[in-house]
Design goal:
It contains 16 helices and 13 strands. It is an alpha/beta fold and about 400 residues long. Helix 10 links the parallel strand 9 and strand 10. The structure holds alpha-D-glucopyranose.
């Protein structure tokens, strides 16, 4: 099966990491990653994957009518260029790695006739625009992959073509000795005491990720005499408001007088190693669609404390494979941190259970196999469609 895996942006976050890791684990599918030149394609090349660089375009849609028109035209042009590339490469399925990528790939279906699967990584946009997109999607896509139940439900489609496929992670390849090494090296690198308690929060800096709650929890712990350190890993991406949010976080840390206990690391490539070097991972987001970083930390045996909204509840069983708290409830978050830090048995049990949980339900092998299954089904259906078409043509003659 020849698959064109299309990503409309070259910037790398959860959806793109999922693309790279899954593509590297297919058994039958031959994948070509298609995207504008940049970080994603560089990483794909490094991983030995086939790539096709597409001309880049400005992916932002604006409320300003002129810019909106320019954005739509840009999308149409990029969709046409994609359709040229998939036809030239002889793809049998287009795997579009976002809502926008799906729209662009399906727009030219009349021309390329290649089935398109839309990978839904986020909650759909609200309001009229969201409704129109959902209506278009229901007609245009041959299949959908949703990363969690809320994303699937939010999309409102009950048709059989929606497949729920959670992200998969690679179980830790590190030995205990290597993990200890990362702990020592990274703590030194991040100017954090070797024996200190370290919490890490990883993800783009954005208001909906609520890194402010991690800072507030840190402050409360320190007030209670519990010395702790917080690593905030990630950078503001995509929007101006995210840049402001980073400044707000720095201001908040200053106001609460906890700057000495926080490290803003910026974007890092060594997420697995950072998870080994910290004691626990926090995820404070409002309605996280899935939370790929959760399974990455769990795969290292690093306990996670996360908000219970979005798709997170499908990953963590509270008290068993991690701890859940209500979004924004700082006292509850602090309680959970304290119980993990004071209860050795609970921490060790969660660490063992979370590795097991990833191996059982969120392994990359399962995710890759399920995705290949969707491809195979699409190829079959498309062959049947073409056969029927041929037959009708035959009858007409
Ligand atoms: C998107 C979602 C995130 C998910 C990732 C991978 O970035 O916001 O929750 O983990 O895609 O599917």
């Amino acid at each position: 099966m020849r698959i064109a895996y299309y990503n409309h942006t070259s910037s790398v976050s959860g959806a793109e990491i999922n693309l790279l890791v899954t593509a590297a684990h297919y058994k039958r599918a031959e994948v070509t990653i298609m995207a504008p030149e940049g970080d994603l394609l560089e990483r794909a090349r490094e991983a030995g994957l086939l790539v096709v660089a597409l001309p880049s375009y400005n992916a932002r849609l604006s409320r300003n009518p002129l810019r909106l028109a320019a954005g739509i035209l840009g999308m149409i042009r990029a969709g046409k260029q994609l359709s040229d590339a998939v036809m030239a490469g002889g793809a049998e399925v287009i795997h579009a790695n976002s809502l926008r990528a799906g729209m662009m790939a399906s727009l030219f279906y009349w021309r390329h006739r290649i089935p398109v699967v839309w990978h839904l990584h986020d909650n759909p946009p609200k309001g009229l625009v969201g409704k129109l997109i959902r209506m278009y999607a229901a007609k245009a896509a041959q299949a959908f992959i949703a990363i969690s139940e809320p994303v699937m439900k939010g999309f409102g489609s009950s048709s059989g073509t929606v497949h729920l496929i959670h992200n998969g992670a690679v179980l830790s390849p590190f030995s205990e000795l290597e993990k200890k090494r990362y702990r020592i090296d990274l703590r030194r690198q991040l100017d954090t005491p070797a024996g200190g308690r370290v919490m890490v929060i990883i993800g783009q800096i954005a208001p909906w990720k609520r890194q402010e709650d991690a800072i507030r929890a840190l402050h409360s712990l320190i007030q209670q005499g519990e010395e702790n350190y917080l690593w905030i890993v990630g950078e503001p991406k995509f929007r101006e408001e995210n840049l402001h949010y980073l400044k707000e976080l720095q201001r908040l840390a200053d106001e609460l007088n906890v700057t000495r206990h926080i490290r803003f690391t910026g974007f890092r490539n060594d997420v697995d190693q950072l998870c080994c070097a910290a004691d626990l991972l926090l995820l404070c987001s409002e309605n996280e669609p899935f939370g790929r970083v959760i399974i990455e930390a769990m795969a290292q045996g690093t306990p996670v404390i996360a908000t219970s909204g979005g798709g997170v509840g499908e990953i963590i069983e509270h008290g068993k494979s991690g701890l859940l708290y209500e979004t924004g409830n700082i006292p509850q978050l602090v309680d959970h941190i304290r119980s993990l830090q004071s209860n050795d048995r609970l921490r060790k049990q969660i660490s063992v259970n979370c590795v097991e949980r990833v191996g059982g339900y969120f392994s990359i092998e399962q995710a890759a196999a399920k995705t290949e299954h969707v491809y195979a089904q699409l190829v079959r259906e498309s062959a049947e469609r073409n056969n029927r078409l041929e037959q009708t043509k035959g009858v007409a003659k």
